[in-house]
């Protein structure tokens, strides 16, 4: 039931998801689902925890591993989940996220942060900086991917159409020219390439910031 819920949420989005729709997909009555869950919220929370199981958690028992690599692995994998399942973002803050996969992800993040060498009072701030950045980046990326798909266009086609429509507006001309310069400098021939470079650079900034704050003591 949870697996089918995830599949429906991926295909149709959070707004269209209902117990009736799930029951139809399963070939049962909507009321029969309540033998397994009390509410729709319970089912959504189960679906949320299931996809958190897709986050690749590094081997935390490997004492020789570099915390920087482990942090990058967690951040990249979390971003992938947010983009793959665009409905996850609005649910992350709605529930307590105390399912086994969510807890395992949280424990891994905290474990890696402890290995950074930051003072205890700074670890939660660093955690917030990295993973709230990933959450925001992945959320916006996921929405863009979904909008492109809904329009029946590739991401590059959607981007070109949106850019063309905006650049034709005289009131946006000056600010858009400045944006063009920045976008040209960032490199990349496709939206995916540009986004990848932005994410990697931003993540490295955060890693460097943690290193600098650790050196300050």
CATH class of the domain at 52-150 and 187-216: Mainly Alpha
Q: Give the beta-strand count.
A: 0
> Pairing-aware structural class of the strands and helices?
mainly alpha
Task: List the helices and strands in order.
Answer: HHHHHHHHHH
Any overview of this molecule?
Helices cover 71% and strands 0% of the residues. The protein has a domain at 52-150 and 187-216: Tetracycline Repressor, domain 2 (Orthogonal Bundle), CATH 1.10.357.10. It is mainly α.
Topology:
Layout: H1 2-12, H2 19-26, H3 40-52, H4 67-84, H5 88-92, H6 100-115, H7 120-150, H8 155-167, H9 173-186, H10 191-216
Helix pairs in contact: 1-3, 3-6, 4-6, 4-7, 6-7, 7-8, 7-10
What attributes characterize this protein structure?
single chain; 217 residues; mainly alpha; Tetracycline Repressor, domain 2; 71% helix; 0% strand; flat
In short:
This protein is mainly α.
């Amino acid at each position: 039931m949870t697996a089918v819920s995830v599949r429906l949420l991926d295909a149709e989005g959070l707004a269209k998801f209902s117990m009736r729709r799930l029951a139809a997909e399963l070939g049962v009555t909507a009321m029969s689902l309540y033998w397994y869950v009390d509410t729709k919220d319970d089912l959504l929370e189960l679906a949320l925890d299931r996809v958190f199981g897709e986050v690749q958690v590094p081997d935390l028992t490997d004492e020789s591993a570099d915390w920087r690599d482990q942090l990058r692995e967690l951040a990249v994998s979390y971003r992938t989940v947010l983009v793959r399942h665009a409905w996850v973002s609005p649910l992350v803050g709605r529930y307590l996220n105390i399912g086994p996969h969510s807890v395992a992800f949280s424990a891994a993040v905290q474990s890696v942060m402890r290995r950074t060498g930051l003072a205890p009072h700074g670890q939660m701030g660093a955690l917030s900086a990295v993973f709230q950045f990933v959450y925001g980046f992945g959320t916006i990326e996921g929405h863009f991917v979904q909008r492109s798909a809904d329009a029946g266009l590739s991401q590059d086609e959607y981007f070109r159409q949106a850019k063309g429509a905006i650049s034709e507006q005289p009131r946006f001309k000056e600010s858009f020219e400045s944006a063009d310069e920045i976008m040209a400098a960032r490199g990349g021939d496709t939206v995916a390439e540009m986004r990848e470079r932005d994410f990697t650079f931003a993540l490295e900034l955060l890693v460097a910031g943690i290193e600098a704050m650790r050196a300050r003591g």
